[in-house]
Design brief:
Number of domains: 1
Helix content: over 70%
Largest sheet: none
Order of helices and strands: HHH
């Protein structure tokens, strides 16, 4: 399994904390399907950001 990137790991931790925290009833009530969708969208966003960063680094050299 590929090592998770920092921002994604952070996002997963935040998502877990939101679930455990009852002051966010929506997040806890939210179905597994919705959580999966949310995390997938986040993963896609993180990948895009990383692609942009690597392109920027390549241009910089």
């Amino acid at each position: 399994m590929k090592k998770l990137s920092e921002p994604l790991t952070e996002a997963l931790i935040i998502a877990q904390q939101l679930q455990e925290d009852n002051s966010y009833p929506y997040v806890t009530r939210c179905s597994l399907k919705a959580q999966e969708f949310f995390l997938r969208r986040m993963l896609i966003a993180v990948r895009r950001i990383e692609q942009i960063k690597t392109k920027a680094r390549a241009k910089h050299r």
